[in-house]
C-alpha cells in the first residue's frame, strides 16, 4: 500500500528552528509537496521538490532524498503565525496526490 | 494569480435537504478540479476528480449518487450533497490545477465549506 508518515504534533519556541520530517512509500514518485493549513482554513502551497536536495524559500526550506523516501520542511525564525498543520503530499506514478495526516506545529512564546 | 474561490464558506441545513457547493477558478481555466473532505484532526481525503465536460472520477467508497459533481465550464465545478445527513457534516475543500503555469501539478485550494447537518 501507499503510506506517508509524519509526526502528529510538534512544539517549538518563537524565534527558533524546527524540522518536520516526512517519510513515504508510494507506487512511483512524481514530486513531493508541502502545504500549510491553519485551523478551519484550506491548505496553502509552500514548496515542491522533485529532485534531491534543498529548496529554500525565505524562512522555509524543503529537502528531498528520493533514495531514502524522505523529506523535511525546515522553518526558521519561527513566528506565532507559523502555528498550523503542515501537510506532506506525494504524487505517485499515476500522478495522484497521496496526503499525509499532517503535523500540528505549536509555537510557544 | 491562481486564485480559487469556494462558496459558501459555511452551511447549516436540516437532515434530508440538498446542499450545493461552488468552486471557481478566478484567474485561470481549470480543466481539472478536485473535491476533498476533511474530518477534524485528519488529513484530506480525495472524494473525486472533476473533469470539465465529462463525468467525474470518484474515489473508492464515495457514493456518486450522493455527491453529485458537475464541471460544466472551465472555471466552475459544483458539488451537491444530496439528502444530507448528520454523518455528512464535514469540511469540504476544492482545489484546481492551472495547466498554464507549469507548476508541476501544484493544487490551489478554495477556502473550504464547513457543512453542518442537523
What do these coordinates show?
The complex is a heterodimer of chains A (109) and B (118). Chain A is mainly β and 109 residues long. Helices cover 0% and strands 57% of the residues of chain A. Chain A is built from no helices and eleven strands. In chain A, the strands form two sheets. In chain A, strands 2, 4, 5, 9, 10 and 11 form a six-stranded mixed beta sheet that branches. A five-stranded antiparallel beta sheet of chain A has the order 1-3-8-7-6, with no helix packed on it. Chain B has 118 residues and is mostly beta strands. Chain B is 0% helix and 51% strand. Chain B contains no helices and eleven strands. Chain B has strands at residues 4-7, 10-13, 19-25, 32-38, 45-51, 57-58, 67-73, 76-81, 90-97, 107-109, 113-117. In chain B, strands 2, 4, 5, 6, 9, 10 and 11 form a seven-stranded mixed beta sheet that branches. In chain B, strands 1-3-8-7 form a four-stranded antiparallel beta sheet, with no helix packed on it. In chain B, 35% of the residues are buried. The model of chain B has no long low-confidence stretch (mean pLDDT 91). Classes of the chains: A mainly beta (109), B mainly beta (118).
Number of helices of chain B: 0
Please give the alpha-carbon distance between the first and last residues of chain A.
Answer: 40 Å
Whole-number average pLDDT of chain B?
Answer: 91
The outline of chain B comes out as: globular
Helix content of chain A: under 10%
Q: Which chain pair shows the most residues in contact?
A: A-B, 21 and 21 residues
Major sheet details of chain B: 7 strands, mixed
Structural class of chain B: mainly beta
Q: Could you estimate the helical fraction of the residues of chain B in percent?
A: under 10%
Oligomer: heterodimer
Amino acid at each position: 500500500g501507499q503510506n506517508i508518515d509524519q509526526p502528529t504534533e510538534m512544539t517549538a519556541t518563537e524565534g527558533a528552528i524546527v524540522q518536520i520530517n516526512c517519510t513515504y512509500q508510494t507506487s512511483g514518485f512524481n514530486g513531493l509537496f508541502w502545504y500549510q493549513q491553519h485551523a478551519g482554513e484550506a491548505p496553502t502551497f509552500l514548496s515542491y521538490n522533485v529532485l534531491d536536495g534543498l529548496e529554500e524559500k525565505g524562512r522555509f526550506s524543503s529537502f528531498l532524498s528520493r533514495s531514502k523516501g524522505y523529506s523535511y520542511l525546515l522553518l526558521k525564525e519561527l513566528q506565532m503565525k507559523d502555528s498550523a498543520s503542515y501537510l506532506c503530499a506525494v504524487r505517485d506514478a499515476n500522478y495522484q496526490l497521496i496526503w499525509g495526516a499532517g503535523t500540528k506545529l505549536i509555537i510557544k512564546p | 494569480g491562481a486564485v480559487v474561490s469556494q462558496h459558501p464558506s459555511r452551511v447549516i441545513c436540516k437532515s434530508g435537504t440538498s446542499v450545493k457547493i461552488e468552486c471557481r477558478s478566478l484567474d485561470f481555466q481549470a480543466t481539472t478540479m478536485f473535491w476533498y473532505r476533511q474530518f477534524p484532526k485528519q488529513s484530506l481525503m480525495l472524494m473525486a476528480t472533476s473533469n470539465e465536460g465529462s463525468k467525474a472520477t470518484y474515489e473508492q467508497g464515495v457514493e456518486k449518487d450522493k455527491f453529485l459533481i458537475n464541471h460544466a465550464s472551465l472555471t466552475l465545478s459544483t458539488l451537491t450533497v444530496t439528502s444530507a445527513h448528520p454523518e455528512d457534516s464535514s469540511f469540504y475543500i476544492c482545489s484546481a490545477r492551472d495547466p498554464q503555469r507549469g507548476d508541476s501539478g501544484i493544487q490551489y485550494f478554495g477556502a473550504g465549506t464547513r457543512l453542518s447537518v442537523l
